[in-house]
Design goal:
13 strands, single chain, 2 domains, alpha/beta, nine-stranded mixed beta sheet, DHBP synthase, Rossmann fold, four-stranded parallel beta sheet, binds magnesium ion, binds threonylcarbamoyladenylate, globular
């Protein structure tokens, strides 16, 4: 369910962006912390507010697929196909950047991450920013997830407010995010397509469109900081437990614990909080970060999380839980 936002508020948010301010806004994946992507000083503020290292590139959100060729100096056939198949939607393409794309966005790399989000509020904001377009200008909203560096991504406006509320200029509340985990990232700037971050759109979905499955990322420097092990972490330590070890792990855990599992608690279980996760990967992803936040705030000393079932449909959730476990 999306909350609709008056056009007047959208116009105001676009004005804030144009004047160099920061606006948090909903996307279908998670909330983003947005700045005018053509304004390096505004983009620098994102890094300051998040406490994020300047070498980490940010994703540029575009008003439509028509803007792709302004931002990328090469648009390979595979990129064209993926954009056509999945935009607007939860897929980020890493491409060779066009001239004029600032180092502030790319962390000094020769590539830029691009996506067209599908949330109606994000699209309305982007289209307001694009009004008066001359057909050549670089138009986009640079936005990482609207959390402090290394913390759980926000999937509601309340999450954003609690983490960054006093440090940013405006928050657009579009209701809870539908997907709940960050976009899939595919790097098409190299010799072969590489999957930098799994998400709702899986490797198989990509293979179906471009004919080859993307490779696991190479061993280069932190090209995608989302791939740092400690990312998406709650403050309380999280232990990821395989189903076959579950009963033993539960019995052996002497710390005050909260739990997220695919099963119900046994009778008389002493856990502070026990959240049953949905057995459908999309429903599970939708609630994942809100659940982690709730457990984190429950006063436990450890979070026990049951590992998801095997199989490609669980790739995104599995990835985020592994990272949360650090
Ligand atoms: O779903 C999403 O992607 C959300 C919403 C707001 O769009 N955004 C998001 O941004 O998750 P962030 O900054 O938290 O994560 C962006 C990821 C990082 O891992 C970053 O390294 C990668 O995208 N990235 C961006 N540009 C890149 C580039 N040129 N090369 C490699 N990775 C890039
Ligand atoms: Mg993030």
């Amino acid at each position: 369910m999306h909350l609709s936002i008056p056009q007047q508020t959208i116009e105001e948010a676009a004005r804030v962006l144009r004047s160099g301010g920061l606006v948090a806004f909903p996307t279908e994946t998670v909330y983003g912390l947005g700045a005018d992507a053509s304004n390096p000083a505004a983009v620098a503020r994102i890094f300051a507010v998040k406490g994020r290292p300047a070498t980490h590139p940010v994703i540029v959100h575009l008003p439509s697929i028509a803007h792709l060729a302004r931002w990328a100096r090469e648009v390979p056939e595979a990129a064209r196909r993926l954009a056509k198949a999945f935009w607007p939607g939860p897929l980020t393409l890493v491409l060779k950047r066009a001239s004029g794309v600032s180092d502030a966005l790319t962390g000094g790399q020769d590539t830029v991450g691009l996506r067209v989000p599908s949330h109606p509020v994000a699209l309305a904001l982007l289209s307001a920013l694009a009004s008066g377009d001359d057909g050549r200008r670089l138009i986009g909203v640079a936005a990482p997830s609207a959390n402090r560096f290394g913390r759980i991504s926000p999937t509601t406006a309340a999450h954003v407010r609690s983490e960054l509320g006093d440090r940013i200029d405006m928050i657009l509340d579009g209701g809870p995010c539908e997907v709940g985990i960050e976009s899939t990232i595919v790097d098409l700037s190299g010799a072969r397509p590489a999957l930098l971050r799994p998400g709702r759109i899986g490797a198989q979905d990509i293979a179906r469109v471009i004919g080859t499955a993307p490779e696991a990322p190479g061993g280069e420097a932190p090209r995608a900081p989302g791939t740092l092990e400690s990312h998406y972490a709650p403050q309380c330590p999280l232990r990821l437990v395989r189903p076959e070890h579950w009963d033993a792990a539960l019995a052996a855990e002497s710390r005050r614990r909260s739990v997220m599992a695919f099963r119900a608690p046994p009778p008389g279980d002493p856990s502070i909080k026990w959240i049953c996760m949905a057995l459908d990967p999309q429903a599970c992803a939708h609630d994942l970060y809100a659940n982690l936040r709730e457990l984190d705030a429950s006063g436990c000393e450890v979070i026990l999380a049951e590992a998801p079932p095997p199989g490609p449909r669980w790739e995104g959730v599995r990835d985020r839980l592994k990272r949360a476990a650090g």
